[in-house]
Amino acid sequence: MTITSLILSLAAANDIRQDIAIIPREYYEIIRERNESSAVPLVPPLENEVPDIYYIVLDAYANSETLLEFYGYDNSEFVDLLEAQGFIVPKNIYANYPRTALSVASTTNMEYWDALVPEMDKVRSWWPTKHFLEKSIVQSSLEEIGYTTISFANDWGLTNNKNSSIYLQPYPILLTNIEDYLIRATPLRLLQKPLQNIMPIKTHDVHRHFIRYNLETLKEIPEMQGPKFVFSHIVFPHDPIVFDKDGNPIQTKNKFSFSSPEVTKDERQKLYIGQVEYINSQMKDVIKAILEKSSTPPIIIIQADHGLGLSMTFNPNENQCFQERLSIFGAYYLPGKNLDTLFQDYSSVNLFRIIFNEYFSTELALLENRFFFTQESNLFAGMQEITPKVKIFCDIE
Ligand SMILES: [Zn+2]
């Protein structure tokens, strides 16, 4: 271990200690209460009409208007194809939070963070979101009525849900982010090559393998028995850039990172659009397989956690284009329902309130749309509500 990496590790440990100290006691109390019972009582549809539910998160997939207005890409071919298959693809829909963990956990717990856990405004860490990602209200409610929950591993980590009934992973052993870091930063990296197919550290090849595994395995899920809630967070078309539009690997000598590549804005847009085109072509096959193989028409949700955010710096002192980061791609296959109007003024926090009301006889109130900004590296600290600013069109040139 180099002196620098030792200092970094000690600094990180110190940060974690400080964070533990400032997490409010209410956080632990809320978690304890949720462990006892957090399920919403659902009334399942008739036995032979219980639909599988697929919630597929495509990370940083911008909505069609943003793709066209900001990046000059016309996504209408994919949208038309989805609509022809019966999907709703609403034009202006939004995530409530600009970061993955906050956005996905808020969606699967059907609530805003200030209601889930108040008084988190000094907390900088990401880990307090983990409980809400692994033990979401949506998951526990569906399990109560007999759903099997299935989730996929990814190489990002926080959305990996080992608490689901079936956890699918493409490698026998998955390292935590800290283990991955320690192996890369120390002589243990000599073990990397012989063990890469068993216990991989993060590389671009490994990232491609996670994405391909996830896409291929999704096509086989309908063959599994019983009603299923399937959660798949594909860290794509988010950076890093690993595929061109035809699925050819893009080789780079850069170290693996989920941060944006150091290229011009134009080049980044071009590479990102290539990834959007690739995931479109792959999702066509995934959707086709799920629709063809499902014995009961399934609910399919394909939704981004946030947009790309080329002009989002997460620095509160700079001008931000919230619209570009928070408007998202979403496509919804909702068999037997005509819910277009519910998606006309929609944000992600209401996704499962809508699904539960329409398919499981709940009467959950739809929440008012609210939107939030968080600072770089800080999830909760410095969080600001920016609701009036989100729908303001901005010029990102
Ligand atoms: Zn994300």
Please describe what this structure looks like.
With 397 residues, this protein is of the alpha/beta class. It has a single domain (3-389), classed as Alkaline Phosphatase, subunit A. Helix content is 37%, strand content 10%. The strands form three sheets. A six-stranded mixed β-sheet has the order 4-3-5-1-6-7. The chain has a two-stranded parallel ribbon with strand order 2-8. Strands 9-10 form a two-stranded antiparallel sheet. The mean pLDDT is 90. Bound molecules: zinc ion.
Annotation, overall tally of beta strands = 10
Outline the biggest β-sheet: 6 strands, mixed
Compute the number of structural domains: 1
What proportion of the residues form beta strands (DSSP E)? 5-15%
The assigned CATH architecture is 3-Layer(aba) Sandwich
The overall average pLDDT, rounded, is 90
- Per CATH, the superfamily is Alkaline Phosphatase, subunit A
List the ions, cofactors and other small molecules found in this model.
zinc ion
Give the SSE string: HHEHHEHHHHEEHHHEHEHEEHEE
Kindly name the structural category: alpha/beta
What gap, in angstroms, lies between the N and C termini?
43 Å
Biggest sheet strand order reads: 4-3-5-1-6-7
Q: List the uncertain runs.
A: none
> What would the principal axes of the Cα set say about the shape?
globular
Number of helices: 14
Oligomer: single chain
Radius of gyration: 21 Å
